[in-house]
Amino acid sequence: MGDPAGVGPETIVGVWRQASVHDGARPFVVGHPAIIERAVRLLGVAAKVVPIDSPAAADPAPDCIPCLCAVDDAAADVPPAKLDARGGHAAYEALLAATRMALAGEIDGLVTAPLNKAALHLAGHLYPGHTELLAELCGVDDFAMMLYLGPGEPLRAPAGLGVVHTTLHMALADVFAHLTSEEIAAKARLADTFVRRIGVATPRIGIAALNPHAGEEGLFGNEERTIIEPAVQLARERGIDATGPLPCDTLMVRARDGDFDAIVAMYHDQGHITLKLLGMHRAVNVTLGLPIVRTSVAHGTAFDKAWQGRAETSGMLEAIRVAALLARHRTSVDTAR
Q: Are 183 and 166 in contact (CB under 8 A)?
């Protein structure tokens, strides 16, 4: 459900009657029924919220929204579009419950509505975001955030385009100290595995440079020579079709035009800005390296739009589609490497 003060409940209810949601999955909500009912009333959706106590009890339909209550009743009192520790705690509790169900094999994947990082911290859960929290819950160290944009204009790549981030939620001043050849090569492997999972037999992975003009032969920095080039070589030795380091401005144009299936970016904004310009509302956040399937919308809690009946829903629709796709194909690829 995400933070109840944000647009999460509206995005869930807003897509619920779409036939594609039910054709590709058997969905139910993890959160609080009263909050979902409020979103139903706000949007005037012809659907009934049905409380359930286990995934097995879910019997979804376009006019029936099963909801497993996993958060305190206090969450229902969180005011719309306000930073509130109760909202942060509710988002945490819902994510915790859904992740445990996924790890236990009770569900095949989870789609997360946005949480608010400040509210999460107010509640005492000191994580930079969903990605790091999920990695801890799943007990993994080798993980990454990918933004994925499915096929369609303006992309010419038939399977879409993914951007994996080597460093993520940290100050730009800290990025240089956290870049290593091994980390970059590891992210290339995660990108390669994801692209295989969505049906590409021989993924092409582009590796972004860090400095302008890829360092211009050392004039603008040596990280390309000392860190990124060895990472590309390491990835190739591991059987990955990796190319780089390439200047990010031209690399992303080539990726849009179909030369690459995935990109490894060096830091958060280097990847986020490009993909969101190409398709902000269709972009999906995928956590790579987990033993479970997790996708999310690529936007935040949007307090400026929350609970006004005008939340953008196409991202949630796409996140559900991609989660169902990954859940169907996860077994054959996860054992390949």
A: yes
Pairwise CA distance, residues 53 & 56, whole Å: 8
For residue 177, report the phi and psi dihedrals to the nearest 5 degrees. -75, -20
Structural contact between residues 205 and 191, judged by C-beta atoms closer than 8 angstroms: yes
**Nearest CA-CA partner of 223 in 237, 208, 234:** 208
Round to whole Å and give the CA distance between 177 and 308.
43
Helix/strand/coil for 143? coil
Q: Are 247 and 270 in contact (CB under 8 A)?
A: no
- N- to C-terminal Cα distance for the chain? 33
Are residues 164 and 187 in contact, defined by beta-carbon separation less than 8 angstroms?
A: yes
Instruction: Sort 45 into a burial class: Cβ within 10 Å, 0-12 / 13-18 / 19+.
Output: middle
pLDDT tens, residue by residue, 277-336? 998 889 999 999 999 999 999 999 999 999 999 999 999 999 999 999 999 887 444 433
